Automatic annotation (TrEMBL):
Gene3D superfamilies: 3.30.1150.10. It comes from Polaribacter dokdonensis DSW-5. Keywords: Membrane, Transmembrane, Transmembrane helix. Residues 187-245 form the TonB C-terminal domain. This is TonB. GO terms for biological process: transmembrane transport. The keyword Transmembrane helix applies. InterPro entries: TonB_C (IPR037682). It holds the Pfam family TonB_C.
Length: 248
């Protein structure tokens, strides 16, 4: 074969470096254009469903509700009055003299014939016997529920029943409404158990009119008693009931 000799202008090897550089420039230019290219953002309407207001609590999750403490206004405690009955209920000085006023009827002048004398029977005045003190009575009145006891046991049972009756029925809280000062107050009560067993002639001494009315109503609620006796005769019995109570 014949060696073909290339023309100097037709030899491309000399331009390989230039082509490489142009290729790099072209690649850099394309990369630059790609980086600087702006894409327009399109706004799209997106439908968002309503979020449920219910709260989902995962299982095994402990939920603790704390309740706020409501501060209640402090109120003054209601003061309770203590009712005290003296143990010696009927220890009263019975030797005191009492002034009794007796209104005697006026004498009437009767015209009569001296020739006719008639014997007129003298009227018999009914003797109103004085009541016997409870501590001196031979057979004391019998409170309901104390039947069949000895004389001394009957008196003790009578006092015990009277004590319970007063404690259950006397309104000791009345002193709070009356505005009484703190201290011990005493109500002196006396009444008669007549020869039929009824309570009569109630006498009360109290530090306030309302307490007097309360005590009077209390005594009127007493049941009828079996009357007291001296021997075999039913007699009136005077009973003294002192009531004491404390106002704190």
């Amino acid at each position: 074969m014949k060696n073909v000799k290339k023309l100097p202008t037709k030899q491309l090897e000399k331009f390989s470096t230039i082509f490489t550089q142009l290729g790099l420039v072209l690649v850099l230019f394309v990369v630059y254009i790609a980086l600087e290219h702006e894409t327009k953002q399109k706004s799209l309407a997106i439908y968002e469903p309503e979020v449920s207001k219910s709260i989902y609590i995962e299982p095994n999750t402990e939920v603790i509700f704390t309740k706020e403490k409501t501060v209640k206004p402090k109120s003054d405690p209601v003061k309770q009055n203590r009712l005290i009955l003296d143990e010696d209920i009927d220890k009263v000085d019975d030797n005191k003299t009492e002034t009794i006023i007796i209104n005697e009827p006026k004498k009437q002048v009767v015209d009569f014939d001296i020739n006719k004398i008639e014997t007129v029977p003298e009227p018999v005045d009914e003797v109103d016997e004085d009541p016997v003190p409870f501590i001196s009575i031979e057979n004391a009145p019998i409170f309901k529920g104390c039947e069949g006891l000895s004389k001394e046991e009957n008196k003790k049972c009578f006092d015990k029943k009277m004590l319970k009756f007063v404690q259950r029925n006397f309104n000791a809280e009345l002193a709070n409404d009356l505005g009484l000062r703190s201290g011990k107050y005493r109500i002196q009560t006396q009444f008669i158990i007549d020869n039929t067993g009824k309570v009569v002639d109630i006498k009360i001494r109290a530090p306030h009119i309302k307490l007097k009315e309360e005590t009077h109503n209390l005594i009127e609620k007493l049941p009828q008693f079996t009357p007291g006796k001296q021997g075999s005769k039913s007699v009136k019995v005077r009973y003294t009931l002192p009531i004491s109570f404390l106002v704190d």
